[in-house]
From TrEMBL:
Its EC number is 1.14.19.-. This is Acyl-CoA desaturase. It comes from Fictibacillus terranigra. GO terms for molecular function: oxidoreductase activity. The chain crosses the membrane at residues 30-48, 54-75, 87-108, 150-174, 186-205, 211-230.
Amino acid sequence: MKDLHSFGWYASRITPHLSKDFFKPVPARLWGGFAYLLVVVAGLLAIGLFDLHIIINIVIAGVLGASYAAMGFLGHEILHGTVVKTAWLRNFLGAVAFWPLSTGPRLWRKWHNMNHHVHTQHDEKDPDAWPNHEKWIQNSLLRTIYRLPFGVRAFFSFLSLSVQFSMHGLKMFIEYIKDFNPKNRPAVLLQTVLPWATWIGIMFWMGPVKWLFAFLFPLLIANFIVMSYISTNHRLNPLTPVNDPLANSLTVTVPKWVDVLHFNFSYHTEHHLFPSMSPKYYPIIKQHIKKMWPERYHEMKMSNAMKALWNTPRIYYKDNELIDPHKKNTFGTLGNGLDGAKQPDPEVMKKTV
């Protein structure tokens, strides 16, 4: 593994080349969120008030799922303070944006901002890092899962993307609620429970069948979209003892119109260098990174990154490899045998230990 540097080391070398305006909040980003909110309200009312043909309900469910995911991307941006700086307004807008994904702003800032960003891909401290071989040995459930044939395991792993964000959010609530000051715990609990109470209340209003199209199916779609990004953000990168975003993060490339719809969420290495900067400016940050450290920067087409995820296990071996523990096959990570510029070939990536 190349010599590692902290995200501050990189940021300090790029910052002199940037305008001070890059570090100001961009409240105009809220117009996109307002558009999505109108779409969501219209979709919910259409399903709730009218007896529509099932095909129309399916289409609306797809639009709602895509909208729920996009609102989550904006909520992530808001809660980093890049849209508005006023704390109460930031938390309120972040709560609204994350409402479909039922994630409270206090929990998100604790889990994501304070732990994931500070300790990215640290095998003990990053709440989003996948386990290493030693943890696999100690976990009977993981050992059972990894006895399944590779293809079956990959299929169910991809299928689970449709629930992973919601399940991980619940795990983070259980894990971190004790870390909050006792006087703040009721607010954290309320921010977690209230969105679910709202969606359950909507079920009683429109009935369980319509609710499937208004919330449950869209939630599965939103989970899959969000987790497709989150899974490719770091899970092909090595574990790192130093929080080096050029080593432990991946920027995926998607069509420009997708970046517009998803608020530039694909620029993930850039985000880990400048988490308090609006993603509006990340294409420019990308240019600076590729000019200064082209040999360190990792980017990959989203389709290729998803194929690489399918073709590799998620257990780390010696930090910079992934291992299929029963067959003893190891696969390179980005910067350690996996080339983000090429179509992933599982036979090339694989070796036996």
